[in-house]
Amino acid sequence: MTAEPAENLDLSALERLLAQQDEPQLSPAEFKAVFRRHPAGVAVVALAHEGRPVGFTATSVISVSAAPPLLAFSLAATSSSWPAVSAAETLAISFLADHQDDVSARFATSGIDRFADGGWTALPTGEPVVDGALSWLRGRVVQRTPVGDSYLVSLRALASSLADTAARADRSPLVYQDRTYHRLGDDTVL
Fold it and tell me: What sequence ranges are listed for the domain Flavin reductase like (predicted)?
């Protein structure tokens, strides 16, 4: 599967929806306030671009389909990582463990070398993965869809750390909600 250029996508329904500007809508601040209350898993999306690693923190990673195995994430068009993602064929997503809030903060910081402090390993195919993450997926970009001021990047999962995750069964995922990191534990089970 190859990435389909955005200009070839049928976005007529989305374009009609966005054209309905006379309808009342939430302000960006109200929209963000709603999603601050929605907990999300934390991941680092990383790739090799022009001989160097590029990566960023994402709380927008979603499962799309199990057969075929598809996932997606969103990225602002203004992100410093967008030029690399726009050219990428493959990338890796590391799902962070609850002790990796410092890793998440580092990969969310602009203007620094996010890989300088180490804590990552390049896969044989070149994509960086975060050491100690709960798990990772390597995927091939199948589509980049412009949506609002962002892009929805869809991937076909090619490989995972599933064989290694049994050793990490005692860890819980890093969760982000209301601008604060959280961990899930036995005491949070309903």
Answer: 35-183
For the chain, the first-to-last Cα distance in angstroms comes to 41
Give the pLDDT band (50/70/90) at residue 97.
very high
119 within some domain: yes
DSSP string, 77-139: TT-TTHHHHHH-SEEEEEE-BTT-HHHHHHHT-TTS-TTTT--EEE-TTS-EEETT-SEEEEE
> Going by C-beta distance under 8 Å and a sequence separation of 6 or more, which residues neighbour residue 118?
none
Residue 10 reports pLDDT greater than 60: no
Domain span at 73 = 40-163
Q: Which amino acid is at 159?
A: A
CATH of the domain at 59: 2.30.110.10
Q: pLDDT band at residue 165, thresholds of 50, 70 and 90?
A: low
Domain count, the chain: 1
**Host H or E run for residue 73:** strand 70-76
**Pair 159, 165: CB distance under 8 Å:** no
Chain centre to alpha carbon of residue 39: 15
What residues contact residue 159 under an 8 Å CB cut-off, 6+ apart?
123, 137, 138
